[in-house]
Known about the structure:
Pfam families: Meth_synt_1 (PF08267), Meth_synt_2 (PF01717). Pathway: Amino-acid biosynthesis; L-methionine biosynthesis via de novo pathway; L-methionine from L-homocysteine (MetE route): step 1/1. This is 5-methyltetrahydropteroyltriglutamate--homocysteine methyltransferase. The chain is of the alpha/beta class and about 775 residues long. It is about 45% helix and about 10% strand. The strands form six sheets. The protein has an eight-stranded parallel β-sheet with strand order 1-12-11-10-9-8-6-2. Strands 13-18-20-21-22-23 form a six-stranded parallel β-sheet. Strands 14-17-19 form a three-stranded mixed β-sheet. α1 (about 15-25) runs antiparallel to α2. Zinc ion binds near residues 612, 652, 654 and 738. Glutamine binds near residues 495, 501, 610, 612 and 740.
Amino acid sequence: MQTHILGYPRxxxxxxxxxxxxxxxxxxxxxxxxxxxxxxxxxxxxxxxQEAGIDLIPCNDFSYYDQVLDMTLSVGAxxxxxxEVALKTSNSELDLYFAMARGYQKDELDITAMEMTKxxxxxxxxxxxxxxxxxxxxxxxxxxxxxxxxxxQLGVNAKPVIIGLVSYLLLGKxxxxxxxxxxxxxxxxxxxxxxxxxxxxxxAEWIQFDEPFLALDLNEKAKETYQFIxxxxxxxxxxxxxxxxxxxxxxxxxxxxxxxxxxxxxHIDLVRCEDQLDDVLDTLPENKSLSLGIVDGxxxxxxxxxxxxxxxxxxxxxxxxxxxxxxxxxxxxxAPCDLELETSLDNDIKQWLAFAKQKLTExxxxxxxxxxxxxxxxxxxxxxxxxxxxxxxxxALIHHNxxxxxxxxxxxxxxxxxxxxxxxxxxxxxxLNLPLFPTTxxxxxxxxxxxxxxxxxxxxxxxxxxxxxxxxxxxxxxxIQWQEKIGLxxxxxxxxxxxxxxxxxxxQLAGVTFTKKGWVQSYGSRCVKPPIIYGDVxxxxxxxxxxxxxxxSLTNNxxxxxxxxxxxxxxxxxxxxxxxxxxxxxxxxxxxRDEVTDLEKAGIRIIQIDEPAIREGLPLRKxxxxxxxxxxxxxxxxSSCGVDDATQIHTHMCYSEFNDIIQNIADMxxxxxTIECSRSQMELLNAFADFKYPNEIGPGVYDIHSPRVxxxxxxxxxxxxxxxxxxxxxxxxxxxxxxxxxxxDETEKALLAMVSAAKEASLRY
Length: 765
Ligand code: GLN
Ligand code: ZN
């Protein structure tokens, strides 16, 4: 029996990599210093794994920005627009690499970055490879081999982690028409072979190919490509040992394909799909070993040893222990580094958790326990694990019967407005009295340096709560007055009291806690600290009423209440694994519902419930969509349907495709939906038009991701475009998203122009 993990976090337990990269980018440190930080992190990670007793230690799981971009550089899939950058950066491969990740704006060049998108259903973003019809690949970067050699010098015969060829192609995007990216497989293969040859020459024994697509819906062509590629690789390397990993889903209908691949070890994710174990054990060919992904790489809960040992036992009974690997379910990239750094977490909660470093120990203990160790310390650790698991099952911190009962008692009426939209629309018109093409914003206004420094001072204690509130109130007042002055119709308070749209609510909801250093890489040097939903969620006290009410008291215009929706709170947190996600989501939905009805009671007649993450929560396999959409939509409706007809519910979603989920968006039945639209030149609106979407829509008329100020004319044109497909009586005018990352001067100019564009549109109408 062997132990391994699929990858380790590379940011460093104090975010050393983030700091080093950002300093290098800003020109404050040298390339040498950055490289040294990188090397130190790798060494530290290898050492940590050695000490924990991991047998097969990964390398090439480190990355200065993103592992997919690393692969792109390795195989020389460098888009042509970087040719000139490559000349300028010819003495530093890493500079070209960063230019591809972040764009290049110097030496009179202005080259855009490569596109970024989410890594499957995680919050990690990878850089999307760009593919062209007659693309040539050639070995460009030696990173993979260099990292292997680096480990070897420290006495570690590491297992290089390489994105499998088929998954690498499937992760990319065809940038011209008339070909299928899988057609490139045979052209890419020689570069993979070259890399493997060099690794073999350097003494590599094990290679891990990550093939997450093996657990997704595959077409025939992809299946054939898998067989072709792995057969070719095997022919060239009869002696290298290959582990092919699947994760985030079960192999399901691809199991027979996986079984036929000429590899040594197949890795399966038993956290996401425990059910697959029986089928895999029944069908795995005798010449293959099985890697049991049993320690959750994506969540922070302590492993339940008793349960895991039963699964391991089942597998060893069938295959014999020498054909078994104990592993993390996926790379530990998605888990925070080290629980021991958390000094102020509640001790009861802390004993239920394991971060990356602790997960290493879990993997290693599971092996020893399943081999029947008699070592006292290990047996003690097992007893402690049992105690922690038992305490979590019954803890009063987690379980609140009134919350459970309330969820059980949810009835159909709770997710229905009193009347249909057509009736509500009339009631709302009467109360709200808004013009045609009403203007609004998405919620946040610029979080200036001052605003952020007040929050920091407040958290440190150098501002007391009265002083802090006073400053925020002044900022809110300024924002309300300014919105009034430029003639916006529906105002917002600006969200100055919030650092983050999920964290703000998480901090106030019961059943949710926060770490101090639980950073997880989101993309490049950006890290996030997801809240931990550990228990039954409820709302001990109103969360936003104070600020909305205050803002409303300052003006005769309507001020829109601003909330984050239950699906988004769920999606951007570490979620408890002891009950279905849908149950947790409904608990959050009830808490938000309480807030919505309190806002209504406080005189707020327009309430926005943001759900930017609803689409990214879609299961990886289509077969799971229906069920997810059912509970996700229901959760939104539970949160939003407790109000009168005349109270207007808004929702907001960021850049996403709507075509295949438009019916579900319509089922959410928000009175108004604002969507990000300008980057697609209103194209995203077509889904709503084709569907004849009945409720009101605010397609974003300008991109808030860039400091650029849009002209009145371009926004008028976009509105005109919108009006061609959506009746004017249904249209709102707003930016793409919140303005918190923008500066005031850009914001002022842009919104002023937006209001003029709306006026022009209504005059023309
Ligand atoms: N109301 C939020 C804001 O304006 C919405 C943010 C988002 O959609 N990501 O900041
Ligand atoms: Zn948004």
